[in-house]
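Input.
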Amino acid sequence: MMNGRSNIVADLVAAGVSVQDIWDVVNSPKQYPEAIPVLMRWLENLEEWSEPPEREKLEEAIVRSLTVPAARKVAAPLLIRRFRETPYTETNRWVIGNALGVVADPSSWEEIARLIIDPTYGTARQMIVYGLGKWKNPRVVPVLIRLLDDPDVSGHAAHALGLLRAKEAQRKLIELASRGSPFQRREARAALRRVSSAEG
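Output.
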């Protein structure tokens, strides 16, 4: 079994990415498009290349490194698969969902929709739902309205609906603004203001 952390750094350096640790990629303001194929190869074969105690941390570092616009589209199918299958903690699934909120696009809609309507994934879906506010896809709005009734993601759905200026969500947003948690009420009210400003 390889020493995953040191070997992934060696692979990144060989690809022209000058780092001393995988977390250097995560923490750098610079994007490294040349790192993406290396990161994806490691993520796809993580079970073969690292032992369980290291694997969870290495997966988080790789996924956070892929949470960049440069990985848009290309990394989404692999991340969707990892989201469904990751055998590690709920935290790691949330990290993968956060990445999908950045890199997924409408070409992945069918798979994304199946993930976000499945309540068994709980709060790990939050940032995927949040990211849908960037999408110009008419099929997104009805699903987001449905998710206003899901307490694990309703505040995030409200945020996305506000960004989309979805006037058809007004009634449900008004309900959420009066009965939800402080975070849910705040997001619902902000969404209602955006919808109202679009109508004006």
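The radius of gyration is 19 Å.
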